[in-house]
Structures
1.
Amino acid sequence: MSTANPADKLYHRRRARNAVALVLSGCAAAFGLFWLVWILWTTLVSGMHALNPALFTKMTPPPGESGGLANALFGSLLMSGLAIAIGAPVGVLAGTWLAEYARRSKLGECIRFLNDILLSAPSIVLGLFVYALVVKPSGHFSAIAGALALALIVLPIVVRTSDEMLQLVPGAMREAALSLGVPQWKVTAQVLWRSARPGIVTGILLALARISGETAPLLFTALNNQYWSLKPNAPMSSVPVAIFQFAMSPYEDWHALAWAGALVVTLFVLLLGLAARWYLHRSHMAQD
Amino acid sequence: MRDGGKESATRGLLGDRAFRAATGACAWLVALALLGAALSMAWGGRQAFTTFGWKFLISTDWDAVNHHFGALVPVIGTVVTALIAMLLAVPVSFGIALFLTEVAPAWMRTPVSSAIELLAGIPSIIYGMWGLFVFAPFMAAHVDPWIDAHLGSLPVAGTFFSGPPLGLGMLTAGIVLAIMVIPFISSVMREFFLTVPKRLKESAYALGATIWEVAWDIVLPYTRQAVIGGVFLGLGRALGETMAVTFVLGNAHDLTASLLMPGNSIAAAIANEFTEADSEIYRSSLIALGFLLFVLTFIVLAIARLMLRRIERKRGYA
């Protein structure tokens, strides 16, 4: 048979190597999807098992009693809202400065670089920072400290998206508005922000998705609270910290509650991600 | 008339100046936040650094009763779990990026890449719970015994792979971390693979190159800096990840060579022990650990950003 010449052999070897590589790359993609399905499936099944109306109406229980996560859900909502309220405006303003006043400057590059580092800095480190900044001087854990730690996570995300989105606004728009004699701050606030709004809002939504599952920065800032609390300067419960406490415990019914909380958080985060995408897509459609 | 115009012009100027100052202050706040985090941890950890000196870095002690603390065990745990994660995640991410840019049919690319990006959106505490309740028992039942039996008896490497089938430990933590960083690395790679000029790739195809040869000899060299940047970005994530690791690492302060044994990492130690630290020196040691983690991730992330920035600039001028 084919005791063919070396060129043929080489050709077949290259074909074979290519086939192996392509199959492996397909396997890599399947490998990634496999974990996604496994994790989501587990969360869905175990979470649905424990999901009931009491989850949203009852407080976190002591071991052995039935209860819900009402106080934790409320705490998460409040602290995330506060974090957005603090982080988003500061982030938009900082992003505006980077895009409008420091596009090519050394200082701008430097702050952009530091912002990128803050963006991926370990969240537990930010928790330690807020502990030293707020909790230690004031002497007690508080919801405000928790919100501040989350705001430090929101900040770099919003800075980056605002900066990028404002840079995408065509220069002609700035020049047209400025040539009418409008002061620059008014141009920025009424023309540029409006034009970049879809991107900026998407950034804020993604930041919200990111912080609603964050646990590490809350562990020693907001701590935890077994009861319903509205006080911003007292410890406050949150869903991720409650999940952590319950999952690490030896009690079966606490585990069930932790899974229910996990399902709620995961659904919220994924839906928020979808909503952000949908909003961006729709705005692009409207602009075209 | 003219005066009125002048007045509104100065008011506009004043507004401009105030606006510029306000936005500039916010931008400085970003820099201050990072600087403040570093300084506050250096300050909070000073007691540990001055009490133990250099020994803090090389001591394996972690004795809350006698107040002897050393960082070696958590530091090694952090580095080892992150390296296991990278060993797994880098080739898989490259495969995924290759699949999504060159191999998959066009209709498949968007859904698969969005699905993989979903992985990045799942909160780390969910990974932790899944790891503790589902994946660790799976490892204990099926994977650990096999590793112990087949690799544990090897002459030198065996020490790394022998141990009881606990399910919790460095290997499990490394695998969970790998799953978490795969979407980050693969999306950076994919993004930059798409920027390779069509001309380059098609010249190679015209000469008869296979898809694999184009990927390995054309795409990879062209995007080398971005690939390194993406890998370091993933490494930074893996080093600093807290919750997922805390669940599956086992929280043991012993130094062992075996990857099947429970260990500790910087982030896990802080998360587990900080609120229970009952003495100043204990707390200070944990903050000092946080400072080490900050320095480590800062270096890794700085390399990542410099690499990515360089290639972005190149693309900008091209």
Note: Chain B has a mean pLDDT of 89.
2.
Amino acid sequence: MSYIVFFIASIGAIAGAIGVIALRNPFYSVLSLVGHLLCLAALFMLLRAEFLAASQVIIYAGGVMVLYVFVVAYIGQSEESLGASHGWLRVLTPLFVGVLLVELMIATLGSGLKAIGTKGADISPSFGSPAGIGEALLTTYLFPFEAASLLLLVAVIGAVGLARRREGFTVGDTPLKAGEIPAVPPRGSGTMAEAAGDRPVAGFRGGDRS
Amino acid sequence: MSIAWYLAVSVIIFSIGAAGVLTKRNALVILLCLELMLNASNLALIAFSRMWGNTDGQIFAIIVMVVAACEVTVGLGLIVAIFRRGLPEDADQLSELRG
């Protein structure tokens, strides 16, 4: 049974990965990555990492991929030409990837670890459970846990700084001075419809250009 | 199913991701390929965790997921900022990252 699930899931994962780089439309690439992530979650489940499989589905396939779909829909679908732009890159990439594949295969499968050909060590029923992972995160790995939360905070602040409104409000093409900005922004400003330019706010325009 | 099979799958996915990062020109698709590589490393970490019967590898995988989420946040923020300034999405034409 586990053999069947493994082969189905790994074939799905590899096919999804190939789909990401083979499909021309970025939107289909994102959908292919969602399939890849779901198959990968099945592999995690086979490796008895239940909590990670669940968080993979919820965080990646649920959260991160929604963000990707959102951005693809926002910036529009640009058909991109397949293949590298430079001639030498087109020649060199298959060579480099082939060397990388062989080298990593040697590094992992030929590592001389005796347990690599086995199904793995005997494990307790609580292996990979939320309780076990939570205990490890909050005792042994408390510092990485806190560092990860700090990293998330930095990333959020950075994203806000990147995406913030640069110029404030403008009337026509003349930007408003600091004193002229109304205390209550006009209705509809700051919404996604305004950012996408579909429905300009009457009289006001968000400072999208610089 | 022996651990070696999982590692082989992980290596194949990592190589596919590396190929995508090298050949793709759309910045968004390059980010997607980075996700592929990070997920391949996650699979290897979890396979080794299962091999030793130790939860520590899964903790590493969680940290990798956090880093991937941060990378997505900042990367997509950059792409949106690039789009709003009317710059090309082509990574080859974005060689000068000045505002």
Note: The CA atoms of residues 4 and 47 of chain B lie 9 Å apart.
